[in-house]
Amino acid sequence: MLSVRGLGVRYGRSVSALEGVDLEVATDSVVAVLGGNGAGKSTLLRAVSGTLGLHGGAITSGEIRFRDERIDRLDPAVVVRRGVVAVPEGRQVFARMTVEENLRAGGLGARSAADRTAARARVSELFPVLAERSGQRAGLLSGGEQQMLAIGRALMSGPSLLLLDEPSLGLAPQMIGRIARIVTEIHSQGTAVVLVEQNATMALQVADHAAVLEVGRIALAGPAEELAASNDVQRLYLGGHAESDEQAAAEVAQARSHRSARRLARWAG
Ligand code: ATP
């Protein structure tokens, strides 16, 4: 679905943020991109969503293809219409607008009124709390609720690929578990996800595949289970998230068992 080949990115003349980065995302998969501060994770998402120019960055080499077509020279709004939508770091909601208005704004990227209605139903099912708070100003929601609204707004345009930049950042363990479950649920509904995270344990529980960025280059990549077992990943990125990891593991296991039950019911019925 998404293919990034030999990607190089610079900010201005002096900062080289990515070099020779390859990343493949298959339809119906969750791919985690891990790495420490400044490794280039957000830069990679900006390159894919076409928003690098807004941050003073530019692609210097390589190419990005989505469903076999080049998207690396497209306007961000065109990338959204192709089906690639990003949720940037930092829970960026329109604080003065209501929850409802935020979701409506997200729906402007939908391909038709019918798609918008279907997306709205999906968002209400995934995030009942947003339906309860629809008239409330987004700036008054809790951090976790704002993250849900940011994801819900992105889903309103009906993406086939969702790019999430550190959705767990600054959230309490229980909320991180809920976000993990929601990502699993979104994936099970047929949307592929690229999940950028510093919380490697949570990300590796949710993802099928993962890549580790180190100073702008891919240092490791492979199936999430293999990376979780790798000594390097354990030493560098795992540990220190124990409570949130347990929550995330429990929520993901629950979402997966619901998914299996639904598949069985479909198969039987
Ligand atoms: P974090 O987890 O801290 O958000 P990250 O892995 O997402 O880090 P990036 O934000 O992509 O890393 O940054 C990669 C490199 O590019 C860093 O050296 C950073 O200082 C630099 N950089 C990022 N944004 C800009 C910008 N707008 N202008 C100049 N340099 C930037």
Characterization of the model:
There is one protein chain. With 269 residues, the protein is of the alpha/beta class. The chain has one domain: Rossmann fold. Helix content is 45%, strand content 25%. It has eleven helices and ten strands. It has helices at 41-49, 76-82, 99-107, 113-126, 128-132, 143-155, 173-188, 200-206, 224-229, 231-237, 242-268; strands spanning 2-11, 15-25, 30-34, 57-66, 69-70, 84-87, 161-165, 192-197, 209-214, 217-223. Strands 6-7-8-3-9-10 form a six-stranded mixed sheet, with helices on both faces. The chain has a four-stranded antiparallel sheet with strand order 2-1-4-5, covered by helices on one side. Helix 7 links the parallel strand 7 (161-165) and strand 8. Helix 7 packs parallel to helix 11. It is globular, with a radius of gyration of 18 Å. The protein starts with a strand and ends with a helix. The model has no long low-confidence stretch (mean pLDDT 89). Bound molecules: adenosine-5'-triphosphate. Adenosine-5'-triphosphate binds next to strand 2 and helix 1.
